[in-house]
Design brief:
Helix content: over 70%
Structural class: mainly alpha
Radius of gyration: 19 Å
Number of domains: 2
CATH topology of the largest domain: Tetracycline Repressor, domain 2
Shape: elongated
Order of helices and strands: HHHHHHHHHHH
Strand content: under 5%
Largest sheet: none
């Protein structure tokens, strides 16, 4: 019984931390402006609990971001069109890119904090599991969409990196804040980019 209570307490603590961190990050202009002390106090747990469960701020930001975007991973793995595995490859590229635009617009501060996380501590963007997953799926869809083209299409892995670079949170945030980019325009522009890179 004690072990069951401990697991229940741990689950409650994790949920409380994620909820508190989500709220504080949403209220902050940038993820780095929120301290671990503030999150621990808002969640009603000790700061040691945060470090034991999430490692550091980047780990906690990643956990909040992954909780917010769980729907995206589930759709990629087993969902219907335009994200699921049975989607025709060209439409899947469009679907993934449009979903990423929405994610970056809705979670700019979290995504930007993750993208800026220092390398060498398991937090490098290009080595992260989420980046490798999406890059791999995009590269596969690009390769299948462009199979047999004459002249040959650009390298699929490179094209996938280019597409992901176009929706970096810092770039999207700059375009929204400085150049007045709207959601509708962002979705149209990314679709045009996909069309140009994939060819006819």
């Amino acid at each position: 019984m004690a072990r069951e209570n401990e697991r229940a307490d741990a689950a409650r603590n994790r949920a409380a931390v994620l909820a508190a961190a989500d709220r504080l990050f949403a209220e902050s202009p940038h993820g780095t402006a929120v301290s671990m002390d503030e999150i621990a106090e808002a969640a009603g747990v000790g700061k040691g609990t945060l470090f034991r469960r999430f490692g550091d701020r980047a780990g906690l930001v990643r956990a909040v971001f992954e909780a917010r975007t769980a729907w995206f991973r589930e759709a990629l793995e087993s969902g219907p069109e335009p994200l699921g595995p049975d989607t025709p490859p060209r439409e899947r590229v469009f679907g993934i890119m449009e979903a990423l635009v929405r994610i970056k617009l809705d979670n700019t501060h979290l995504a930007q904090t993750l993208e800026e996380a220092p390398a060498g501590r398991g937090a490098e963007l290009f080595a992260s599991a989420s980046y490798r997953l999406v890059h791999g799926l995009l590269a596969d869809a690009v390769a299948r969409a462009c199979a047999g083209q004459t002249p040959p299409a650009p390298d699929a892995a490179w094209t996938a990196h280019v597409l992901l670079g176009a929706v970096r949170a810092d770039l999207v945030g700059h375009l929204v804040a400085t150049e007045g980019l709207t959601r509708g325009r962002a979705l149209r522009d990314v679709r045009d980019l996909v069309e140009r890179l994939l060819g006819p």
